[in-house]
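Suppose a colleague, Dr. K., hands you the sequence of a protein chain of 106 amino acids and asks what its three-dimensional shape might be. Before reaching for any lab equipment, you can write down a predicted structure in token form. Begin with the sequence itself:
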Amino acid sequence: MNVRFAENHIRFRLLPEEPAALLTGRNLTCSAQLDSNRRISISLRMRHGHANSIKISGEMSALIFEINSETAEALAALGPAKEGISLAVGATRVQFDVDLKAARRR
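The predicted structure, expressed as tokens, is then:
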């Protein structure tokens, strides 16, 4: 999993096998550089239920993104593609896609 931050946009790029791992209850983790002085730990996990497509919690050094089972299933069904699933959290867009280039290399 790779995560990139931009103004009002967060993009998750998952490896082809990672959506299925989410469906089995596995947490996906990575770290990302926010600026020259700060790294952040990021976890992505599935939560059961269909209320709210995404929930974000944590603090500035560690964020937890939880997607509902419906979103995780849609991501797994989508497979590698240029355009993934985009969700709104206030004014911020959170995008999830499965890495097309990684799928081609396998």
